[in-house]
Amino acid sequence: VLPAGAGILFSSTTGIFRTTDGGTNWSSVSGGFCANNVQAIGFAPSAPGRVYANCVGNDLFKSDTFGDSWARCVSYGWCDGIQRVVVHPSLPDRLFIVAVAEARGHLQVCDGANTWTKLTSEQPNDLSLAPTDPSTIYGAGSIYSDSVSRISFYKSTNGGDSWSSKTIVSNASY
């Protein structure tokens, strides 16, 4: 759902689809660039119309027109894809992502998709920014092997410069 989009919704499967009437009618806005699996979509709350999309094939795309047109931001070879895109609420060119690499997530940030910086060597599977303070970032990840599960929670209060973590290990049976 596009924040403040008044009925504009996006869905991703084998392409990107948009509705402008709350879900009654849908149309493809992939523009032929993304006919494969779409891994993540992110929205810039402070830039109406700004949408980011990651497609299989190691490309991140950006639209400033609610998906009417797209431009490739970056092609990356350092990961297998992006599973989560979160855009800073007041800085539309600052993205926080969970990149899939070596079958695990790595938290990265990019500014306008020009500069990428690894924020942590931890490996979250998901992340979110605190609604009242976007310099506070929360992440969570899990590893399952045999009958042991490790669930880790991560927190940064300085935009990702440093992190604290808490890991819970359980001997759960599956």
Written overview of the protein:
This protein is an all-beta fold. It is built from no helices and 15 strands. It has strands spanning 9-13, 15-19, 27-28, 38-43, 51-55, 59-63, 71-75, 81-87, 94-101, 104-111, 115-118, 126-130, 133-145, 148-156, 164-170. The protein has a four-stranded antiparallel beta sheet, with no helix packed on it. The protein has a four-stranded antiparallel beta sheet with strand order 8-9-10-11, with no helix packed on it. It has a four-stranded antiparallel beta sheet with strand order 12-13-14-15, with no helix packed on it. Strand 9 and strand 10 (104-111) form a beta hairpin. The chain is globular and about 45 Å long. The mean pLDDT is 77.
Number of strands: 15
Task: Tell me the strand order in the biggest sheet.
Answer: 4-5-6-7
Q: What's the Cα radius of gyration?
A: 17 Å
Outline? globular
> What's the rounded overall pLDDT mean?
77
- The end-to-end distance, rounded to whole angstroms, is 34 Å
Percent in strands? over 45%
Q: Please state the structural category.
A: mainly beta
Please identify the oligomeric state. single chain
Number of helical elements: 0
Largest sheet: 4 strands, antiparallel
The low-pLDDT segments are none
The helix/strand order is EEEEEEEEEEEEEEE
